[in-house]
Amino acid sequence: MNLRQIEIFHAVMQAGSLNQAAKRLNVSQPTLSQALKHAEDQLGYLLFNRVKGRLVPTREAELLFVHAEGVMRRLTRFTQISDNLHRQAEMSLTIGAVPALHFHGLPQVVDDLAASFPNLGIALRSLQFEEAGEALTRKKIDAALLFCPGNVAGPFKIEPLAKAGFEVLSRVELPLEERSLEKVCTRPDYISIAASGPLGELLDRRFARDGISIRPRITTETYYSSAVLAQAGTGVAIVDSFTAHAFAARGLHAYPLDGVADYDVGLVYPEDTGKSEIIRFLCESLRRHLVER
């Protein structure tokens, strides 16, 4: 049976009559009947018994139908992919991400997107947490990869992807007793983050709860900047675990910071996105690669 004959057979099995199957396939009933008879002649056995004007599937038809279902599912998927390739010729995806998340996960995800959607234009934008809502609303980006995504206000969908924590970065090894939050942030060479969004708020709440007063001599605007200073030996920094992982690979000492709550990493995108299939693929790829630390 060729693909058209399988499609006809499948439609008749589903519809239960030639008349209904012909309507589904948008052909005349005589044409469909002739095509079905031709398929049976080629096979050398009947697919349906004609009983009082009704088509009753034979045992052979029942067995073939299971496989025809699989063929039709694959055909539907093939059609979707071919349509997507046509649409992607004029499509692009702009991903905004906080600087720390450009280090890990995102590069591998871009590779995945490029391989699976060869006609898709991909752009990466670095943004601060506070800029995400406006960038999404004004369509400057299609999706935002953020820490604490639930803190973004607006008509957005939020896809949780991973959990992360804080770590201490130092060029020199720190004794165990020097790795606590209070010990690190009260050091004279502590490198602090100014205006650091929801992660900074998590640390500030912990400082307030424990009555820790800090007066950092050095402040930066990003965890990357703090990590670079720590790498230069300027001081000790508290950073997110993704930045810590990237700089530990460069030879810095990274120590998990206990006693401070973990936080979510997630993707935020508009509810009315017209790129749902690509966004779904993006979420799956991010979820897979973000945990590879």
UniProtKB/TrEMBL annotation:
<dbReference type="InterPro" id="IPR036388">
    <property type="entry name" value="WH-like_DNA-bd_sf"/>
</dbReference>
<keyword id="KW-0804">Transcription</keyword>
<dbReference type="Pfam" id="PF00126">
    <property type="entry name" value="HTH_1"/>
</dbReference>
<dbReference type="InterPro" id="IPR036390">
    <property type="entry name" value="WH_DNA-bd_sf"/>
</dbReference>
<dbReference type="GO" id="GO:0043565">
    <property type="term" value="F:sequence-specific DNA binding"/>
</dbReference>
<protein>
    <submittedName>
        <fullName>DNA-binding transcriptional LysR family regulator</fullName>
    </submittedName>
</protein>
<keyword id="KW-0805">Transcription regulation</keyword>
<dbReference type="InterPro" id="IPR000847">
    <property type="entry name" value="LysR_HTH_N"/>
</dbReference>
<comment type="similarity">
    <text>Belongs to the LysR transcriptional regulatory family.</text>
</comment>
<dbReference type="Pfam" id="PF03466">
    <property type="entry name" value="LysR_substrate"/>
</dbReference>
<keyword id="KW-0238">DNA-binding</keyword>
<feature type="domain" description="HTH lysR-type">
    <location>
        <begin position="1"/>
        <end position="58"/>
    </location>
</feature>
<dbReference type="InterPro" id="IPR005119">
    <property type="entry name" value="LysR_subst-bd"/>
</dbReference>
<dbReference type="GO" id="GO:0010628">
    <property type="term" value="P:positive regulation of gene expression"/>
</dbReference>
<dbReference type="GO" id="GO:0003700">
    <property type="term" value="F:DNA-binding transcription factor activity"/>
</dbReference>
